[in-house]
């Protein structure tokens, strides 16, 4: 049905020409699901977008190749011809269901618009089709909800609406670009099942772009592995996973964490415990009223949570978005104010410190953030970023600070020569190393890592996790490791807390909890992990 | 790959942001031309009392308005005063007003806006209500009041202009700071135990430099024109002293008979404005390490 031959896509930038896709060929039959797997920058999205003329040109340029779709070459079509194909014969689902739906248009109008664009039917019929499509993707109570706006739906429901919109014109080919990456793991499982079901019932051909090998294994019949614009390996899903032929594929597979923590727990029991959180409540209160304040809305982000952590222990905190796990971390960091409760770090209540004591105590607990692109000041060199905490807390003087900064660079495995560079000159993984170096600069006792590897590619992720393990051992750190990714938590933590809607659901030793989860919610979370 | 190597070479020299920025600025031709033109105007303005061809108050009523000639390069005005001399003396006032009043506005506005935005909550609300209140004050009445009470002086002129211009700057900076302070590097700075002042000066202000610079380059010419309005109201300079603004508004009146009285001061002001814009754009790019790769 689709036959792509020798596709080559270039991007002309100020710094010269980058080859985004190099000599890519593949075929796709009706009713087949093709997984395209690769890390960021591998050209997997660009390849598919260029087929539909959806890459910006210039700077993009399709240099050579052909893409025969039902006997016509997509790459030779004019924009008008392509527009007739897009949406009607070939539909797309994007990663972020919030930004790909127009927030100012009712869902019904958006669905009807895309039908009327391609089919000559009346508005009433179109509406009926929209209702059918929404029913099919599992939206409950469609008649009542069809006229809602996108923000009134949850993330998973919005992605269902997107799928309905993609399928309403009865296309023959569906291109799904990371359709579940922005979703929680339990929702991801539902959406994947839905796509699979619709694919079967409509006999759709699907190109499924993903960075997640587990998802690819679950969805695809055949898989293409891409690296730096080139096709590395191609084969049936079973071949790729059972007998990968290429070094890079093996590297990708080995980066998928299926193992438990490789090092023994260094937890050391003390009395009182190293960190004790008691009855912690963090509510977000929203006030309204022009003259007299009144409470409009309160969200119980952290609702009465107690736990303790031993010195040297790595405690994993898992939960889906909205579970309050990040707010818990931020409350302990004193980045948000807790309503009530106690946070005792070595017996000292962090919630009762005066402003100046807090400032001094802050060197004892540091945080590693999720997004290495946002967590470093773009206008400060690595040296300035790392020297700042040292100078602020007078752990170094201007004269000997370079020595300590170099030491930190060594610790996190970065080349000392890069110390005068700016953050944007580094890759995501290197930036996260800088952020880690900043967190350990003050020799803190406690590190709170909030999804530190979620924004990273899978091979980089494994390296950063190893680094974190090494550092906790070397510097005898205690760590709270917050993540939505169960496999990452299993690899890193000694003990796990499971959170849901601000409450503590379950707590236990990592292996025991993964093998025999007690609570229904934990079981559900574990069942939702895509298996290879 | 050679990018990488070039990077290593320059980092071994250990450049600071300002050195780095100047190096990048030098590569931007338009910005450098702008900078040179401005420097040229400033030098001329400073040297005017010694190099001006005539005295600024010397009238020659019999001569009257004449078009540009070898004797009077830019012609003379209706009172027979040399136009070149008047433009040169005018640049002293205009540039001084432009730069000093803008600097005042910049200083107050940036600090006010950044503080309000970063501290947030009640402090922010109070600080911004003060800005709103000052905005609401009718400017003309405010100026007339000042003149009545304090009389006419240049210092007062700077103050009056500074007092209005910083309001917009404060609002712009506050808005920018509100978006930047939610980024994780600011939270990281908080959790490192930095003081609010350290966070504002090292992490927030450098990251809002772009809009600040652009707005500054827009403020300078508007301040230069504002001066002529204030002079018209009786605050600021009075004839026979001149400024670009007053020369232009004088030139407008006799535009049809003696166009050179409008064209030359207008031209000088436009060139200044263009130079400022090019320099501003260049500075904005030069100060952002992400903007250019070399």
Task: Label this structure with key terms.
heterodimer; A: 532 residues; alpha/beta; six-stranded mixed beta sheet; 19 helices; 20 strands; 35% helix; 27% strand; globular; B: 294 residues; mainly alpha; disordered N terminus
- Major sheet of chain A: 6 strands, mixed
Alpha carbon gap, first and last residue of chain B: 12 Å
Number of strands of chain B: 0
> What is the N-to-C order of secondary-structure elements of chain B (H for helix, E for strand)?
HHHHHHHHHHHH
Shape field of chain B: globular
Oligomer: heterodimer
Name the strands of the widest sheet of chain A in spatial order: 6-7-8-3-9-10
Low-confidence stretches of chain B: 1-15
Helix % of chain A is 25-40%
Low-confidence stretches of chain A: none
SSE-based structural type of chain B: mainly alpha
Number of strands of chain A: 20
Biggest interface: chains and residue counts? A-B, 40 and 32 residues
Rg of chain A (CA only)? 26 Å
The average pLDDT of chain B is 81
In angstroms, what is the radius of gyration of chain B?
23 Å
């Amino acid at each position: 049905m689709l036959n792509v031959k020798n596709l080559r896509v270039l991007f002309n930038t100020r710094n010269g020409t980058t080859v985004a896709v190099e000599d890519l060929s593949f075929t796709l039959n009706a009713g087949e699901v093709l997984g395209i797997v690769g890390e960021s920058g591998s050209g997997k999205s660009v390849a598919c977008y260029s087929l539909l003329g959806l890459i910006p040109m210039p700077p993009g340029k399709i240099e050579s190749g052909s893409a025969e779709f039902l006997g016509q070459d997509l790459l030779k079509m004019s924009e008008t011809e392509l527009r007739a194909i897009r949406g009607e014969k070939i539909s797309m689902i994007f990663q972020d269901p919030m930004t790909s739906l127009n927030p100012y248009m009712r869902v019904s109008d958006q669905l009807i618009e895309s039908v009327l664009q391609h089919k000559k039917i009346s508005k009433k019929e179109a509406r009926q089709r929209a209702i059918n499509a929404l029913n099919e993707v599992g939206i409950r109570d469609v008649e009542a909800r069809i006229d809602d706006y996108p923000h009134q739906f949850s993330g998973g429901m919005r992605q269902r609406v997107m799928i309905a919109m993609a399928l309403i014109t009865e296309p023959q080919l569906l291109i799904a670009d990371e359709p579940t990456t922005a979703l929680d793991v339990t929702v991801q499982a539902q959406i994947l099942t839905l796509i699979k079901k619709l694919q079967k019932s409509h006999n759709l051909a699907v190109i499924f772009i993903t960075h997640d090998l587990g998802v690819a294994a679950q969805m695809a019949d055949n898989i293409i592995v891409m690296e730096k614009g080139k096709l590395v390996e191609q084969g049936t899903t079973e071949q790729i996973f059972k007998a990968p032929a290429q070094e890079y594929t093996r590297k990708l597979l080995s980066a998928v964490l299926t193992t438990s923590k490789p090092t023994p727990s260094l937890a050391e029991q003390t009395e009182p415990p190293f960190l004790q959180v008691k009855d912690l409540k963090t509510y977000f209160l929203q006030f309204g009223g022009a003259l007299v304040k009144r409470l409009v809305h309160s969200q119980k982000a952290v609702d009465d949570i107690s736990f303790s952590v031993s010195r040297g222990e790595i405690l994993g905190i898992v939960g889906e978005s909205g579970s309050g796990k990040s707010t818990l971390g931020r409350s302990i960091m004193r980045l948000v104010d807790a309503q009530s409760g106690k946070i005792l770090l070595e017996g000292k209540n962090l919630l009762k410190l005066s402003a100046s004591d807090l400032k001094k105590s802050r060197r004892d607990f540091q945080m590693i953030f999720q997004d290495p692109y946002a967590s470093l000041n773009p206008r400060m060199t690595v040296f300035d970023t790392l020297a700042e905490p040292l100078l602020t807390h007078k752990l170094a003087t201007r004269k000997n600070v370079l020595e300590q900064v170099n030491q930190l660079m060594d610790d996190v495995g970065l080349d000392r020569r890069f110390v005068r560079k700016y953050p944007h000159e580094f890759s995501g993984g290197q930036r996260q190393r800088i952020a880690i170096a900043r967190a350990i600069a003050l020799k803190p006792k406690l590190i709170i890592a909030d999804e530190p590897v979620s924004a990273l590619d899978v091979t980089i992720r494994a390296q950063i996790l190893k680094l974190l393990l090494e550092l906790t051992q070397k510097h005898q750190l205690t760590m709270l490791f917050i993540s939505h990714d169960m496999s990452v938590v299993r690899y890193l933590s000694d003990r796990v807390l499971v959170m849901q809607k601000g409450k503590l659901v379950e707590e236990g030793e990592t292996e025991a909890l993964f093998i025999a989860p007690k609570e229904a919610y934990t079981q559900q979370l574990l069942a939702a992990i895509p298996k290879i | 790959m050679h990018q990488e190597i070039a990077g290593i070479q320059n980092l071994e020299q250990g450049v600071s942001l300002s050195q780095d920025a100047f190096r990048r600025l030098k590569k931007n031709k338009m910005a450098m031309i702008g900078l040179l033109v401005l420097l040229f105007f400033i030098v001329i303005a400073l040297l005017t009392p010694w190099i001006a061809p005539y005295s600024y108050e010397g009238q020659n009523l019999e001569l009257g308005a004449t078009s540009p000639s070898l004797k009077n390069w830019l012609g003379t005005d209706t009172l027979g005063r040399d136009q070149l001399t008047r433009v040169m003396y005018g640049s002293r006032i205009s540039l001084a007003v432009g730069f000093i009043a803008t600097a005042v506005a910049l200083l107050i506005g940036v600090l006010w806006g950044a503080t309000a935005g970063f501290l947030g909550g009640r402090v922010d609300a109070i600080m911004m209500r003060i800005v709103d209140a000052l905005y609401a004050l009718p400017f003309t009445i405010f100026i007339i009041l000042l003149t009545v009470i304090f009389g006419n002086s240049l210092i007062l002129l700077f103050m009056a202009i500074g007092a209005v211009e910083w309001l917009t700057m404060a609002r712009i900076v506050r808005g920018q700071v509100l978006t930047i302070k939610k980024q994780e590097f600011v939270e990281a700075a908080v959790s490192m135990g930095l003081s609010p002042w350290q966070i504002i000066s090292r992490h927030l202000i450098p990251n809002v430099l772009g809009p600040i610079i652009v707005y500054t380059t827009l403020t300078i010419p508007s301040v230069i024109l504002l001066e002529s309005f204030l002079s018209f109201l009786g605050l600021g300079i009075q004839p026979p002293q001149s400024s670009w603004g007053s020369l232009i508004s004088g030139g407008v009146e006799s535009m049809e008979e003696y166009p050179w009285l409008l064209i030359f001061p207008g031209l000088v002001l436009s060139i200044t404005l263009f130079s400022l814009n090019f320099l501003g754009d260049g500075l904005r790019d030069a100060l952002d390490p992400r903007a250019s790769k070399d």
